Amino acid sequence: MALQFKTYILIIPHLFTLSVFSAPDITDIPAPGGAGGHIKGGAGGNPHVVDGGSDYAKPEIETHFLGKWVLETADVRVSAMQLQLMPNDQVIWYDATSLGPSARKLEPEGTCPINPDANNQPDCYAHAVAYDWKTKKSRTIVLSGEPWCSSGNLWPNGNMVATGGTFTGVKAVRMLPMNDLNANFIEKRNVLGDYRWYATNQILEDGSSLVVGGREAFSYEIVPPSLEFKPNKIDFPFLKQTCTPGKGPNKFIENNLYPFVFLLPDGNVFVFANDRAVTFKPLTGEILQEHPVLPGGSRNYPPSGSSAILPFKLSADNKHPLNVEVVICGGNKPDAFEVVDAKHVKEKVFVPALKDCHRIHPMKKHAKWEPEQDMPTPRIMGDLLHLPTGDLIMINGAKKGTSGWEDATDPNFTPLLYQPYKPMGSRFKELNPTKIARMYHSSSAMLPDTNVLVCGSNPHQFYTVNVEFPTEWRVEKFSPPYLDPKLDNQRPVIYAKGTDKVLKYGKPFKIAASLPSNEPMVLGEIKVTMLYPPFTTHGFSQNQRMIVPTLTDIVGNVITALAPPSGKIAPPGYYILYVNRLGVPGTGIWVHIE
């Protein structure tokens, strides 16, 4: 039977090689059988429902586990201003190259390339690392052409690209190959069409990236997955209209940097900047719809929110998502930056962040903002990440101030579970807090093992220790509630042998899986999700996208699903595929869609 499901966007202020997990031969999968687990809800259906929609035909498995924090490593010693998980299971993060040394030297000893943003002097310090989340080991990466406050994405072949920054990197494109675990960034300078400092990227249906905005860059451009291209700048007056004017030379306010940008399932693009949004055609810049102003405050950098387009659950005929909706929470007042930043005032005033939330249907004509449940606490600079279940997690950030050097205080240590399909009043749940403040320039990533990797935080111009909020190089993992050890016998296991790892648009594909409990997998109890790994910086996860493909059959230990119909819904490239049973996900594997 067809199940209804809603899709939202949540905005909260502020040659390829497949990499797969090892698995036993498919003939080793245990035969189904056995008993069920404790579930919540009654005979009337699943409480994880809104407007009658549900992902499952019975209630989800219940847990009272509020998550667990684990310190993974204490001394990577390069802060994570920008972060990207790659399909080779390397987490790449990097910092600025013009703001002095990091706490780690390049390897091997004696590697000291010329730094064009440090008076062309030799620079022996690392500003980028590759962290293997499986082994907890890291290596240094040579990076040049200042990438401070840049943007990024993956190419369809899995290579990472970083665009813009400032100084010599303001028009640069840098590429890190996926298939060479010892590679450094390959850089081409002065190739972009405009200055891309604090810009946002969004993958388009053909694998090109839309690069939107930047400081005093009221334009966007389309960058192909190649280092060889001609600049393609398109003026975009909307960005100038939403830019709060500065108060003098070098006294920027803006409130619309790192705009929230999403590819809609019709191929058009939704962009939210400051306090309003438009939908436009990416190839021409034609504005298709102007959305109402969202009252209450500013939502982008420096009030710095987070944003996500909620999962696209595909229709039974696999032609379209069942709904598209935008949610915005928090932020800060329009003047919050100018009363706290040292370029504007001598005495800092840390304005409490907002915690209000609102929704809108961007693809509906005459759409209006609708009230959503408030967050339990205010938050700026928080990362909003998709969980394999289709829920989201808000993590990192602060309760007062804005982004900027030493412009925030009162860390928000408590992650929030956001379940947008639950009844109003029960959509946010506070989880176990960390003890490490993750302030300005912190990052996070959802991993294939369903944990959240958390790193970074450097609210200072230079690496600084022995202060209230020091530069952080400790790396943590947070285990969300679904990783309750009591649920391990309900956690699906995917078998790489027997699972299709190269998907074709609109075509059926197979997933070999089983349950440790030996219970049979049945339609109505199994959900498959596909996560596009985002480039995360400044509280926004660029390109983040989750697809819930249509399932057509489960026979024994093999699930049959339909690949998304086009690149408008699922841009080409690598995704992490997860299997869930009644809200309990198992470790995912990398798949590629084309």
Number of helical runs? 1
* Strand percentage: 25-35%
Biggest sheet statistics: 7 strands, mixed
Q: Report the helical percentage.
A: under 10%
Low-confidence stretches: 1-52
Domain Galactose oxidase-like Early set: 491-593
Signal peptide: 1-22
Domain Glyoxal oxidase N-terminal: 81-482
Keywords: Signal
Description:
It is a single chain. This protein has 594 residues and is mostly beta strands. The protein has one helix and 46 strands. The strands form eleven sheets. Strands 22, 36, 38, 41, 44, 45 and 46 form a seven-stranded mixed beta sheet that branches. Strands 8-7-4-3-39-40 form a six-stranded antiparallel beta sheet, with no helix packed on it. A five-stranded mixed beta sheet has the order 21-1-23-24-25, with no helix packed on it. A hairpin with a 5-residue loop joins strand 5 (114-115) and strand 6 (121-122). The longest helix is centred in the middle third of the chain and has 5 residues, at 237-241. It starts with 8 loop residues before the first strand and ends with a strand. Residues 1-22 form the signal peptide. Keywords: Signal. Residues 491-593 form the Galactose oxidase-like Early set domain. InterPro entries: Gal_Oxase/kelch_b-propeller (IPR011043), Gal_Oxidase_central_sf (IPR037293), Glyoxal_oxidase_N (IPR009880), GO-like_E_set (IPR015202), Ig-like_fold (IPR013783), Ig_E-set (IPR014756). Pfam families: Glyoxal_oxid_N, GO-like_E_set.
